[in-house]
Amino acid sequence: MRIELYHSAYKHLFPDNVVIEELFNQAIWAEGPVWIPKENAVIFSDVKGNCMYKWQENLGTSLFRSPSDFANGNAILPDGSLVTCQHGSRAISHTDTQGNFSILTNNFAGKRLNSPNDVVVKSDGTIWFTDPPYGILSNHEGYQAPSEIIGCYVYCYVPQDNTTYLATFNTMRPNGLFFSPDEKTLYVADMSSVEFSQQGLHHLVAFDVVGHTLENRRTICEISPGIPDGFCVDKQGLIYCSCDNGVLVITPQGEYIAKIYLGKTVSNCTLGGQKQNQLYITATNSLYRITLNTAGFQYNNCHHSQ
């Protein structure tokens, strides 16, 4: 494990005594880390293990939910409650701060979703998620079934009116997604190379956010080695994107500036900690942490509500 710096102007991102810590290594396929400010905890999924874990400082890792309905991506709402992508029920679920559980959405226009994969929450409380087919292709990450929707899209669920909007048709295999700090741009990992290895996409793309829809698709960069899965964005707008052997740090213009090299396939990451300066990374069977000289922006409203 090491840091590779490609652009000296960004050396300040990494403290001189930077350490990459492995916090847990008992998952089958760790995914979907999210920081829960009110509990000072990270909740993350083990998709293939059909369970979810909670990690806390000084307490370590405990089982959060089992079975998890093949949970994948997670995010929090402005009130600190949890939203989760569930391959098994092909749904987005909600767990409130008292632990009460409900399904928010599992269909579009009366047709079942494929298998919601990753999710991000806008500051207005709208829930944006991707819907590739990975949970219905086999019984390893969900339940094998035919798709009822011709295509894999990005959706916006609005809790206020319980409506799911199709945000864009213009994706092949959308996976991870995250807003820019001003929420005017939504970045999406489009990665059809999983099924089409020779000609498939492994790109990070961006859209303009217009109401409940996405417009003006453009390519930020091609992710190599491997594919873009999950990622997050810091308050400076830098993108921390998963790849085959670590986390690539990328400018909004698509320039690689550094890599956090882990030597194993990374699935996702999130910024958390009390100062929002700790990058939590899920990679194959493990959860890692690295403290950076930057901070996230997604959970500021949660801190204010305490």
Automatic annotation (TrEMBL):
The keyword Hydrolase applies. It comes from Gallibacterium trehalosifermentans. It holds the Pfam family SGL. InterPro entries: 6-blade_b-propeller_TolB-like (IPR011042), SGL (IPR013658), SMP-30/CGR1_Lactonase (IPR051262). This is SMP-30/gluconolactonase/LRE family protein. Keywords: Hydrolase. It comes from the Bacteria. Residues 29-284 form the SMP-30/Gluconolactonase/LRE-like region domain. Transmembrane segments: none annotated. Signal peptide: none annotated.
